[in-house]
Amino acid sequence: MKPHPPPPPPPGSRGWGGGATGRRRAFACALAGAALALALLCLFHGAAFGPTLRRPRLRLRASQVQAQAPLPAGLALSSLPVCDARHSELIPCLDRGLHHQLRLRLNLSLMEHYERHCPPAPRRLNCLIPPPDGYLVPIRWPRSRDEVWTANIPHTHLASEKSDQRWMVVNGDKINFPSGGTHFHYGADKYIVNLAQMLGFPNDKLNNEGNIRNVLDVGCGVASFGAYLLPLDIIAMSLAPNDVHENQIQFALERGIPSTLGVLGTRRLPYPSRSFELAHCSRCRIDWLQRDGILLLEVDRVLRPGGYFVYSSPEAYAHRDPVSRKIWKQMSNLAQRMCWKIASKEGQTVIWVKPLTNGCYMRREPRALPPMCGHDDDPDAAWNVLMKACITPYSKRVNKVKGSELLPWPQRLTAPPPRLEEIGISSKNFTEDNKIWNSRVAQYWKLMKSEIQKYSFRNVMDMNANLGGFAASLRKKDVWVMNVVPFMESGKLKIIYDRGLIGTIHNWCESFSTYPRTYDLLHAWLLFSEMENQGCGLEDLLIEMDRIMRPHGYAIIRDKAAVIDYIKKLLPALRWDDWSSEVKPKRDALSSGDERVLIVRKKLWDQAAQAAS
């Protein structure tokens, strides 16, 4: 069950919104005057001036929102100008231009420049990210798997650079994806069948009768491998950095394929231990031998007992080349010391399998390398935690049962996961959580019924996912859900993965690692209340939501009445007033006080009018 958010600080405490009533009123008056001046300034100089301005301090708590006079209609509009067009693809925490501005000393050989480095508050833009010229409502799934609008991602260099590998082909106003990849020129579907045959799985299906569900694809390109796993009921977290192929993940998300920006650098991936049944690297250009094998050990951390690592690379087959032969020998030696065994090797691909128990680890020579991780290491700690060059042993329970104890998909979606007890939640409460979210989601869809169609949604994000109940309730809809667990509750993410869902850890006081305009639906349950308790601005979060939400996309915000009332005043400024619905929901065991549900739809901007403004 989700705990109630902590109470706000008492009057007079330090932080955003603290202080006496007199100071509040003075602040409000000063704020109104400053915002009015800013409105006139922005109207005079035009929207292009907006990005150079610093954000006005509108960081109010819900308790203050209730006490303030209604915001003037023009105040909200003037406080949210539009960024310059050069920021149309801005990812604030992955902005390499910021590295130079802040004079960050990053180790390029360790990929630190591809890791998250967020702008300090004074350097954040106070503006809405515009779409590129000619932007169109994205092509709907399932057509989007094979084609997207060129205007939406006007970057065709990958098509020419990877023309021999059939990544993508430009056809006039559309870009097509013929299912090719660096290592599977003749199609990802045929490559996937071959992997299943190598492992001897029934009916040549890689899902192994539901026992392989969660896959990690590192260095994924435009995620065609993940796209062709979906018909098998396998969901892949397709991962790649914002590197020289900087728009590869943007293409993947535009196609409607589960994917995210990330890199194997110096920090752990934002996933708990034992999250994936299979990890995949097809010419992913990763040096697995560096730093005592630390990157391969990170893959080992997130693999389940008996999990597979599929490695398709020249080192696996080009033994006439002395360099490849040397790398293969070292790679094989490292895998052996990690207790991995070769499950199958054929042509250009080798598949290793991870042990089911601690038995092999215990039989290694004393002081063998890599060492075992210490007892003080938490293998599930994954938010801004440095990688460690050590092997993560299994718990006593996993070692005893020789596996993860997970049911095949889809039974595991609703069955209480074994790791529930690690976070102090009973099977009864888990089952009740499922029932509540089934009821809530049914109500949401009833409210939107007159506005949406079958394929209105494809990319969905639950911004405060708890145990994954919202995503589980969407199983019969043709969508995928990025379940985001706030870093303060990171232990819940392993429950989400054990259910056969995917997600990540995040701090919503910072920007999310994705491109603008990548999600069709955002769901935020009590997120704003939790953010205000951390001293983070409601407006910052709204602007970030606008950045990652597609035009004609929807946001479902369920929060305290005072928070909803305040957000409603900003809808015109956000251009989220295309359509909206507000209800007081029926109370249930997860309700927190006086909650309201607000559903809004974002406008598709009139770019001609925007240019003239």
Automatic annotation (TrEMBL):
The keyword Transmembrane applies. Its EC number is 2.1.1.-. It is found in: Golgi apparatus membrane; Membrane. Gene3D superfamilies: Vaccinia Virus protein VP39. It is an enzyme of class 2 (transferase). One of its GO terms (molecular function) is methyltransferase activity. InterPro entries: Put_SAM_MeTrfase, SAM-dependent_MTases_sf. Its main location: Golgi. It comes from the Eukaryota. It is a single-pass type II membrane protein. Belongs to the methyltransferase superfamily. This is Methyltransferase. It comes from Triticum aestivum. The gene is LOC123158968.
